[in-house]
């Protein structure tokens, strides 16, 4: 699956950009970037701020969610018909779910920001049937009582303390009929909340499908943190708002896919934790395995192994050889 926005959503965002003066969007985009880098929540007090958020952040958030959902499709034997997107913002994750699971029949989207929901409804008019008929509700994590086959929360837990993230994750897991997907910024702060959520979910009986190959305590210890990155094309409007010439950007993200007991999962044998390091002797891979983190090297002289691994990169699944300990 491509991390690029669906054409209908891309066109809707370009149209949105045309409703505001370029200098106003640029100023709002700068405020948003400063808040994001400082780890502050998105305040978005005016319509131009909401528009700038959608133009600047929806493509990156969509790409991160699409990457996590691609893993969910591969690692979880689930066929969700209903979706709950909580902390939905303008509906970014829901757009990604409808692309990954085109048979989705209904969606419920929940957020506390009325301006974000209003924009989300507007954008959804260009979307697939599940989004066109979606129910939008104002509320927080604790106010949702109806569950769904798939529950998604993206870029939401990083705005609360880790202990609160753990409590929320358990709550969301109780609402998920098949699978829960959490996506957060690939920052130490974003990962800290996700790590707390992971521990709480394991204790609650969740089966971890991705990215982890097992359910042992996470081997990523500070100052390290588990995160990945996805490259995505920039919108024309985004380049204009940021005064940028580069046609792409890289979005770091952390994610977690867990399934309810009884749902079949196929975790990766191992996961590549950072970009591989290649030299004349071979390629070294930093891996997370079912028994912990370690490094393995594929020698250049082993042509068969090198052929199988030469296209693998950061975040990909890694097949351990029979001789390798797990």
Automatic annotation (TrEMBL):
Keywords: Iron, Iron-sulfur, Metal-binding, Methyltransferase, Ribonucleoprotein, Ribosomal protein, Transferase, Transit peptide. GO terms for cellular component: small ribosomal subunit. The keyword Protein biosynthesis does not apply. InterPro entries: Mt_RNA_Methyltransferase, Ribosomal_Rsm22-like, SAM-dependent_MTases_sf. One of its GO terms (molecular function) is iron-sulfur cluster binding. GO terms for biological process: methylation; translation. This is Ribosomal protein RSM22 (Predicted rRNA methylase). It comes from Phreatobacter oligotrophus.
């Amino acid at each position: 699956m491509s991390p690029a926005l669906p054409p209908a959503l891309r066109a809707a965002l370009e149209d949105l950009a045309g409703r505001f003066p370029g200098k106003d969007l640029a100023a709002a985009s700068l405020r948003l970037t400063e808040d994001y880098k400082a780890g502050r929540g998105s305040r978005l007090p005016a319509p131009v701020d909401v528009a700038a958020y959608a133009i600047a952040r929806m493509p990156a958030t969509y790409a991160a969610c699409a990457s996590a959902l691609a893993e969910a499709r591969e690692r979880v034997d689930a066929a969700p018909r209903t979706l709950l997107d909580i902390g939905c913002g303008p509906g970014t994750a829901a757009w990604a779910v409808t692309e990954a699971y085109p048979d989705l029949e209904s969606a419920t989207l929940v957020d506390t920001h009325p301006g974000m929901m209003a924009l989300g409804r507007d954008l959804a008019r260009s979307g697939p049937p599940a989004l066109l008929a979606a129910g939008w509700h104002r509320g927080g994590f604790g106010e949702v009582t109806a569950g769904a086959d798939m529950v998604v929360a993206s870029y939401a837990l990083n705005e609360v303390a880790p202990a609160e993230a753990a409590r929320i994750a358990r709550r969301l897991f109780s609402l998920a009929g098949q699978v829960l997907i959490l996506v957060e910024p690939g920052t130490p702060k974003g990962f800290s909340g996700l790590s707390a959520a992971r521990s709480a979910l394991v204790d609650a009986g969740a089966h971890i499908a991705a990215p982890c190959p097992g359910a042992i305590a996470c081997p990523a210890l500070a100052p390290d943190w588990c995160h990945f990155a996805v490259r995505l094309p920039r919108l024309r409007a985004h380049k204009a708002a940021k005064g940028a010439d580069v046609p792409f950007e890289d979005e770091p993200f952390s994610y977690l896919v867990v399934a309810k007991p009884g749902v079949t999962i196929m975790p990766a044998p191992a996961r590549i934790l950072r970009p591989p390091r290649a030299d004349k002797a071979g390629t070294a891979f930093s891996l997370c395995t079912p028994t912990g983190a370690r490094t393995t090297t594929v020698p250049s002289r082993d042509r068969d192994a090198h052929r199988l691994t030469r296209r693998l990169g950061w975040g990909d699944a890694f097949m351990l050889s029979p001789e390798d300990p797990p």
